[in-house]
């Protein structure tokens, strides 16, 4: 098995568990981690011994978003790392035949929330928190959040969350439909593994086609909104308010918007 630096990957009973592993930055997703995630998901999907994938951040945090320090150091979308379209790695999710069960403990913010939204089933434990705080950074969600959050929780809640950055606790997230189930603290990964084992116990082609049908009903086949969001993110990324917002986070202060 390949060695990953920012992931832990284990396989047991037809279930691959992928754990995001950058504990000192709350699993913030930088370019290197995103690349590893695509590799690990693609490898699991290609394996005939794998019937389901668990995606988790471990027992304390799912992911606090894209890596703001890395983004702040990127002057524009024309610069090297971003030339290839920093959101494109998310296209791996709709391509997977193997269902992905997200196990969420703690923060799932920004890109972290978007990873959960891209999963097929989301199990959250008490204390889990979901949100799209990009507006506070002078940005918008860029990994599908504006599209999939609307589908998950409806327009009013999605609009409020994206426009204000308000976070949603596990209970509200379950009521709204973002989460399939809430479990006791410390149980998200175990319960997600149980769900994944049940899925992996089914006939692989039947499961794959069932997933495809539900994904179609959930709007996953139409990627125009995702692509529009990505371009809009890129357009806003180079504005001075985005620079100020990201810099303010890095400097641990409140941003001062130029365009107020
Ligand atoms: N990126 C980089 N570093 C982070 C991030 C992040 N998203 N989140 C936390 N960290 C770091 C902190 O800087 C801190 O580092 P250090 O110890 O060196 O100071 C460490 O993790 C611990 O964080 P805190 O001290 O802030 O921990 P708290 O418990 O006080 O707060 C929070 C936890 C509330 C989660 C807080 O860390 C926070 O608000 N984080 C940022 C959340 C956020 O805004 N996420 C959205 C990011 S933007 C995004 O995801 C856009 C996706 C699309 C991008 C497409 C192109 C790339």
UniProtKB/TrEMBL annotation:
Example GO biological process: fatty acid beta-oxidation
Keyword set includes Lyase: yes
Lyase in keyword set: yes
Keywords: Lyase
Entry superkingdom: Eukaryota
Gene Ontology MF annotations: hydro-lyase activity
Family: Belongs to the enoyl-CoA hydratase/isomerase family.
Name under which the protein is recorded: Enoyl-CoA hydratase
């Amino acid at each position: 098995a390949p060695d990953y630096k920012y992931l832990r990957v284990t396989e047991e009973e037809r279930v691959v568990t992928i754990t995001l592993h950058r504990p000192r930055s709350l699993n913030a997703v930088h370019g290197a981690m995103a690349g590893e995630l695509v590799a690990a998901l693609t490898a699991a999907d290609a394996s005939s011994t794998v019937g389901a994938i668990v995606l988790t951040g471990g027992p304390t945090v799912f992911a606090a978003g894209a890596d703001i320090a890395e983004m702040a150091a990127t002057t524009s979308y024309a610069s090297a790392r971003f030339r290839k379209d920093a959101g494109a790695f998310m296209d791996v999710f709709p391509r997977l035949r193997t269902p992905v069960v997200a196990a969420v403990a703690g923060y799932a913010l920004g890109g972290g929330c978007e990873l959960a939204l891209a999963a097929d089933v989301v199990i959250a434990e008490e204390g889990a928190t979901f949100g799209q705080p990009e507006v506070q950074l002078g940005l918008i969600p860029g990994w599908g959040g504006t599209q999939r959050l609307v589908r998950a929780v409806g327009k009013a809640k999605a609009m409020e969350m994206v426009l204000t950055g308000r976070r949603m606790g596990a209970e509200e997230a379950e009521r709204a439909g973002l989460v399939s189930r809430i479990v006791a603290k410390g149980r998200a990964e175990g319960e997600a593994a149980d769900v994944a084992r049940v899925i992996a116990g089914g006939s692989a082609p039947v499961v794959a086609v069932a997933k495809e049908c539900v994904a179609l009903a959930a709007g996953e086949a139409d990627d125009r909104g995702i692509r529009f969001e990505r371009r809009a993110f890129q357009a806003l990324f180079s504005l001075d308010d985005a620079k100020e917002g990201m810099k303010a986070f890095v400097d641990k202060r409140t941003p001062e918007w130029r365009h107020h």
